[in-house]
């Protein structure tokens, strides 16, 4: 299991400023809890009450080197349960990849739903988490909910459209037997798919490690570094655009123009942009 804290975010009406993320590496089941602060006693209490009391103590807990997770209190908690505590290497958050990726996904989802004042993000967390748990994960090919519970989640829309047919079982023993078989099948499928996904991710990483050239006319998205007073950067959209490649200046520098910027027909002058600051669009034409 991995754990991390995200923030600070704009303080909500309930005085929450941080999010604690806890995720299971195998099932990808990940939860997020709003926090008023990220002190060790707060993090330890929420981890115990919201995760351990519901799912049991994990064998291993992985985190970054934040002071809250490296504190004496947190180490004593791990020793009491007992939990094998591990941590990332310095300045290398990629080794805590599950929660780091989830943090990006969570912030991206919140940016579409928060109010203009960004003060209601904590009330949206349960709905965002529901959407994540009921979505097929790329690394497992099934939803986190199904890996954990052995069945598909029943959403309100399923009931409204009468899509949930349910199962008729004669006894608890029959239910347990069927659940064991289903979970065994799901776990085996997840293991096989994760092996393939790991190989694909390695190939993608090796490809990105080489130079990736962009052709003139291709569409790209540029990282949004613009900061507005009174607006939390973490809840802003990470990319802006799309932009079209106007010219490749060098192997790493490109001139870009907004796709929908100029209506006069003339292409505005654009400063050179490093290729590390933009990503390809899925809708190139």
Short recap of the structure:
The chain has seven helices and ten strands. It is α+β, with helices and mostly antiparallel strands and 285 residues long. The protein is globular.
Explain the overall architecture.
Helices cover 36% and strands 18% of the residues. It is α+β, with helices and mostly antiparallel strands and 285 residues long. The chain has three domains: 2-133, 2-Layer Sandwich (Nucleotidyltransferase, domain 5), CATH 3.30.420; 156-208; 219-280, Roll (SH3 type barrels). The strands form three sheets. The protein has a five-stranded antiparallel beta sheet, with no helix packed on it. The radius of gyration is 23 Å and the shape is globular. The model has no long low-confidence stretch (mean pLDDT 83).
Question: Topology of this protein?
Answer:
Layout: E1 2-6, E2 18-23, E3 30-35, H1 40-55, E4 60-63, H2 72-80, E5 84-87, H3 97-111, H4 121-133, H5 144-149, H6 156-160, H7 172-209, E6 219-223, E7 239-248, E8 253-258, E9 272-274, E10 278-280
Parallel strand pairs: 4-5
Antiparallel strand pairs: 1-2, 2-3, 6-7, 6-10, 7-8, 8-9
Structure characteristics:
285 residues, alpha+beta, Nucleotidyltransferase, domain 5, SH3 type barrels, 3 domains, five-stranded antiparallel sheet, three-stranded antiparallel sheet, 7 helices, globular
Taking all Cα atoms into account, the compactness measure Rg is 23 Å
**What is the CATH C level class of the largest domain, in words?**
Alpha Beta
Count the strands?
10
List segments where confidence is low: pLDDT < 50 over at least 5 consecutive residues.
Answer: none
Residue-averaged pLDDT: 83
Shape: globular
Largest sheet: 5 strands, antiparallel
CATH architecture of the largest domain: 2-Layer Sandwich
SSE run:
EEEHEHEHHHHHEEEEE
Structural domain count: 3
């Amino acid at each position: 299991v991995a754990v991390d804290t995200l923030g600070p975010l704009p303080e909500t009406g309930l005085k929450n400023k941080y999010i604690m993320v806890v995720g299971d590496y195998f099932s990808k089941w990940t939860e997020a809890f709003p926090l008023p602060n990220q002190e060790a006693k707060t993090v330890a209490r929420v981890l115990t009450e919201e995760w351990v009391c519901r799912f049991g103590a994990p064998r291993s807990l992985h985190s970054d080197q934040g002071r809250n997770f490296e504190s004496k209190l947190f180490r004593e908690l791990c020793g009491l349960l007992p939990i094998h505590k591990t941590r990332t290497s310095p300045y290398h958050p990629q080794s805590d990849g599950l929660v780091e990726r989830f943090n990006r996904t969570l912030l991206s989802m919140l940016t579409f739903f928060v109010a203009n004042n960004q003060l209601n993000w904590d009330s949206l967390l349960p709905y965002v988490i529901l959407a994540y748990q009921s979505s097929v994960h790329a690394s497992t090919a099934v939803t986190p909910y199904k890996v954990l519970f052995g069945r598909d989640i029943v959403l309100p829309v399923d009931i409204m459209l009468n899509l949930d047919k349910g199962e008729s079982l004669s006894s608890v023993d029959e239910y347990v037997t069927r659940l064991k078989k289903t979970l065994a099948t799901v776990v085996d499928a997840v293991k096989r798919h994760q092996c393939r996904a790991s190989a694909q991710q390695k190939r993608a990483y090796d490809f990105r490690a080489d130079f990736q050239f962009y052709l003139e006319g291709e569409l790209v998205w540029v990282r949004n570094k613009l900061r507005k007073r009174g607006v939390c950067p973490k809840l802003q959209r990470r990319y802006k655009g799309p932009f079209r490649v106007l010219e490749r200046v060098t192997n790493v520098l490109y001139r870009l123009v907004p796709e929908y910027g100029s209506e006069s027909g003339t292409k505005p002058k654009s400063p050179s942009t490093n290729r590390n600051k933009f990503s390809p669009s899925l809708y190139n034409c």
